[in-house]
Structures are given as C-alpha cells and as structure tokens.
Design brief:
With 203 residues, the protein is an all-alpha fold. It has one domain. Helix 5 packs parallel to helix 7 and helix 6 packs antiparallel against helix 7. The longest helix has 33 residues. The chain starts with a helix and ends with a helix.
C-alpha cells in the first residue's frame, strides 16, 4: 500500500512539472522565482539530511528517498526554467528582500545547529517563507501568477503524503501538515480571485 502511494506521489510530481512547463511558456503565469529558489535549497537540505541519516536500506526508505529526489529535482527544474525564461520577476520588492534576509538567517542557524528538531523547524521556516512569497505574488497578480492544476497536484501530493506517514515520527507529521496548509492556502488564494473576477463579470 505504501509503495502504491509513493508511486502516485511521483506521478503527481511529474504531472505538476509538465503542467508548469506547459503554462509558464506563455505570459499567463509569472511565478515567484525567489520562492522557487528557496524551495530548491530547502528540498536539497531535506534530501541531504535524509541521506546522511539513512541507516537501513529497505523498501520504505527507498520509496522515501525517491520522493526526496523527485521533490528536489522538480524544484530545481522549475527554478532553472524560470531563470531561463528571463528576469521578468528578478526585481526584488521590499517583501522579497525581507524574506531573503530571514531565509539567510535561518540557513545560517541550520548549518550551525546539531539539533534535528531545530533543523526541521528551520526547514519548515524556509518553506513557509517561500509559500508567503508565492501567495504574495498571487495576490499582486490577482490570481494570474500560478496555475490552478499545478497546485491541485501539489495539494494531492500533500494529502497522499499524510496517508503515507501513518505511524511515522512527529517531524514527518509536522512537515506534511505544513505542506497541506501551505498548498491549500495558495490554491484557495487563486480561487478567491477567480471567484471575484467571475462575480464582477456577472454584475
């Protein structure tokens, strides 16, 4: 059952990247490149932590490792794609600059800390900052910066991850619940502006 769920998550990861590439080629979506840069760093840290703490190579750990590689790979590909398309959103706003400073301090603390709980909280902090940047861009563009199907895939992956961690540790649970809340917040913000626009057309 766990292997099936992990496979489904991998499929959704691939589908989300395909949706991203399909939609970001035009002028319809302009996601936050800074957010995806932070996400790339964070997923890289998570992958490195997993590999460093890997003691037993069993079916469950192989599946989890595949997910870590998939998340990191997808995040880096998305970031590089945004970077390749040009610097249309490389100009940092005040919120971007504040977020960058906060992310830098969290990274410094993570490198200096030997506490696994503290390191996990640093990872969650970085992800929260990145999602705040994404939501800020969605609000600024009135829902046009990010694709709905992409974030439906993200929500689906988060929910499947919740099922897969049953019996896991508290740190895995914190990460999964944070992921569900974050992805749902982005999707909810996108739909808020879509409903608002539909209501304006009706009136």
């Amino acid at each position: 059952m766990g292997t099936i769920i992990f496979c489904l998550i991998l499929v959704l990861t691939g589908m989300s990247v395909w949706v991203f590439f399909k939609n970001v080629t035009g002028a319809n979506t302009r996601p936050s490149i800074l957010a995806w840069f932070i996400i790339s760093i964070t997923t890289g840290i998570a992958l490195a932590s997993f590999l460093c703490n890997l003691s037993v190579l069993n079916e469950a750990n192989i599946a989890k490792g595949a997910l870590f590689f998939a998340n990191f790979g997808a995040s880096v590909v998305i970031f590089l794609r945004l970077l390749y398309l040009g610097g249309y959103n490389l100009k940092l706003s005040v919120f971007d600059k504040v977020s960058s400073v906060a992310a830098t301090w969290i990274l410094i603390y993570w490198f200096l800390s030997d506490d696994p709980v503290g390191a996990n909280l640093c990872t969650q902090g970085l992800m929260i900052i990145s999602y705040c940047l994404i939501i800020e861009r969605v609000v600024k563009t009135k829902g046009k910066s990010d694709n709905r199907l992409f974030w439906w895939c993200a929500v689906g992956m988060s929910i499947l991850s919740l099922v897969s961690i049953q019996g896991g540790g508290i740190l895995e649970a914190v990460n999964t619940y944070r992921s569900i809340i974050s992805t749902s917040a982005v999707l909810g913000t996108i739909y808020y502006f879509r409903v608002k626009q539909c209501a304006q057309k009706v009136t």
